[in-house]
Design brief:
This protein is mainly α and about 375 residues long. The chain has 3 domains: about 5-150; about 160-340, no CATH class; about 340-374. It contains 21 helices and no strands. It has helices spanning about 5-20, 25-35, 50-60, 60-70, 80-90, 90-100, 105-115, 115-125, 130-140, 145-150, 160-170, 175-180, 200-210, 225-235, 240-250, 255-260, 265-275, 280-290, 300-305, 310-320, 340-374.
């Protein structure tokens, strides 16, 4: 790689720009091959970096990312070139963040907090993430970032962050499935109930049942729904059944339908358990609403056990699946649920009043010269 070669590449880029041809990707491939062909400790030509910058400026995102994917992992790649890739941003920066070792935690944290979605996904797949970086990624709004974080088995996610991610997984089955693969045995997995298989659902029900043994029964909105909902269920009228439950639970009909029409049948069985429905009536209603669950009109043993879960267990699981107040997260720190006591609410109200007075005083001071002049 000499000066003449770099002038040729510059000419290629300039000609593409002049003729409105996309020669940037060709230029980046040529420069990549030339760099790989360079052997030994010989220094790169002084014009190499300016040529790379011009080529990357003319290249597409994919062309720039391809160059970064090849060169970023190499130890002999100059730091200045890594900086150029990171400055380019997008897929190019993501390629560096996914592969380059030795990037400082502070830089990764900054990109995890405010970088692009592609950069966040790339960082989430790294094996050298500390707790602060993981927490920053968990707060990202993008589903792919959270899924990449959950699928990264090379890192340890704090037990205080996992329930927060489980909350986010209520509308993301892929995230829920990834969380189930790494979920600790001693952590409540009820928020992942809908994504679990039959065996895991049985284990979750058993765990919640153990937790509720001896607990005072908490009244459920479903306790008074039997008289209205059971006739519709017995007739197989799923529309009226779901509409009635949605009104009683104060949630959307779509959320109820997700439980009623679940393929495994456990959420539907929990609904009848929460309504304290006698077994024969519950089996008749489930057969009418979902005939595929009971071939020959008889429920399988796993659903019979679910019907026998108990009202308090069923209440907690249903409210958890609906994102209700019964979610008993064992979260810590910033991911813990925020409990507003009376004293705290009074204190926050006082702070708001003081802030309002301060803003009014500043506004009056700003307007004073104009008021006096008038």
């Amino acid at each position: 790689m000499d000066q003449a070669f770099l002038e040729y590449v510059d000419g290629l880029v300039a000609r593409g720009k002049r003729d409105e041809l996309k020669f940037g990707d060709i230029a980046t491939r040529v420069l990549t091959d030339a760099f790989l062909a360079t052997r030994g400790p010989a220094p790169l030509p002084q014009a190499f970096m300016p040529t790379v910058i011009r080529a990357l400026a003319a290249a597409s995102d994919e062309g720039a990312a391809n160059m970064a994917r090849v060169l970023a992992p190499l130890e002999r790649t100059p730091p200045e070139l890594i900086d150029i890739f990171l400055t380019r941003g997008g897929a190019c920066a993501a390629a560096v963040l996914a592969q380059k070792s030795g990037i400082t935690p502070s830089f990764l944290l900054a990109r995890a907090e405010s970088g692009s979605a592609a950069e966040a996904v790339a960082i989430a797949g790294r094996s050298d993430l500390n707790a602060k970086i993981i927490a920053a990624l968990a707060r990202r709004p993008e589903g792919p970032t959270l899924r990449a974080l959950a699928e990264n088995r090379a890192i340890a996610i704090d037990p205080g962050v996992l329930p927060y991610l489980a909350q986010r997984s209520r509308t993301d089955r892929a995230l829920a499935a990834a969380l189930l693969e790494r979920w600790p045995d001693d952590l409540d997995a009820s928020a992942l109930f809908l994504a679990a298989n039959a065996e895991r659902r049985a284990a979750i029900i058993a765990a919640v049942r153990r937790e509720t043994l001896g607990a005072a029964f908490s009244a459920s909105p479903l306790a008074g729904a039997a008289d209205l909902a059971l006739p519709a269920a017995a007739e197989g009228d799923a529309d009226n059944f779901c509409a009635t439950l949605a009104r009683m639970l104060g949630c959307s009909r779509g959320e109820v339908e997700a439980l009623v029409f679940d393929g495994g049948g456990e959420p539907l069985a929990l609904i009848f358990a929460a309504m304290a429905t006698p077994f024969e009536l519950a089996q008749q209603a489930m057969c009418a609403l979902a005939p595929h669950l009971a071939p020959g009109g008889v429920l399988p043993a796993r659903l019979k056990r679910t019907l026998d879960a108990g009202g308090e267990t069923a209440n907690r699981l249903i409210e958890t699946m609906l994102g209700g107040r019964a979610m008993r997260w064992r979260s810590r720190g910033e991911f813990a649920p925020r409990t507003l006591t009376h004293a705290r609410m009074e204190n926050e109200a006082a702070v708001l009043r003081a802030d309002r007075r301060d803003r009014v005083q500043r506004l009056e001071s700003a307007l004073a010269p104009f008021t006096r002049r008038a």
